[in-house]
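Quick one, probably user error.
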């Protein structure tokens, strides 16, 4: 395919490995989560081509891709990365993943298993 041709947005999302299946790509588009050049994509049959900017809202992140080439098939990830240029904003993390959970004061919150066993020993009839 030449780079000046256009392609359905759902096929392009599938070929670029944004989603796992074409039906998920169609649901993403019809759910209003894809914008083509700042305009909301109305149908999964909307066309994209070289130079178009896609803004894709996924569960916990926003992807901004500039379409470089239309896809011909769903290939490996290295091949899929050649279809777009990533313009996404950097990910900001609130806390490092290895952060230690704060300790609770003794006696606050639910009793632990150890506490429950001690309570059971005290309340059991002999």
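Nope, works fine. Designed sequence:
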């Amino acid at each position: 395919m030449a780079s000046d041709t256009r392609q359905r947005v759902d096929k392009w999302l599938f070929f670029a490995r944004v989603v796992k299946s074409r039906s998920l790509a169609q649901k993403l588009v019809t759910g209003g989560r894809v914008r083509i050049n700042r305009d909301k994509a109305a149908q999964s049959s909307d066309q994209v081509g070289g130079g178009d900017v896609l803004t894709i809202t996924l569960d916990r992140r926003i992807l901004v891709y500039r379409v470089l080439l239309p896809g011909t098939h769903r290939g490996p990830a290295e091949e899929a990365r050649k279809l777009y240029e990533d313009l996404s904003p950097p990910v900001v993390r609130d806390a490092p993943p290895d952060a230690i959970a704060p300790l609770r004061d003794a006696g606050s919150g639910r009793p632990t298993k150890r506490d429950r066993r001690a309570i059971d020993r005290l309340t059991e009839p002999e």
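The domain at 7-86 is CATH 3.10.290.10 (Structural Genomics Hypothetical 15.5 Kd Protein In mrcA-pckA Intergenic Region; Chain A).
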